[in-house]
User: Fold this.
Amino acid sequence: MKPFKSGSLFASWLLRLSLIFLIVLVNRESLQMLNFNSLNFYVSLVFCLLALLLLFGGILGKQGLTVISGLLISIFAIITIFLFHPYLLGLAMANKLLITSIGFYFFTNGNK
Assistant:
């Protein structure tokens, strides 16, 4: 059976929207507290801003914006794994690994 190539654009947008939803869902509590003295607040804010840049890269068709935001999402997720969850093997680690994987997908594929 051959792959459904004409569905790749829909799959890309589905991944993009799922990543944004996951980032907002994972970082929602840190953003709602508005604790400007907390590192978690700024980490969550950066994740949400990068997710918005990924969305705008797709809407505007800017390949560079999509690639850079995908790279930064991946790097930032890996850094947060080691900063906040170094020995934690659970849902938080799975969320960060999923965010890393999808971000790396957009880094390598852009707006395909």
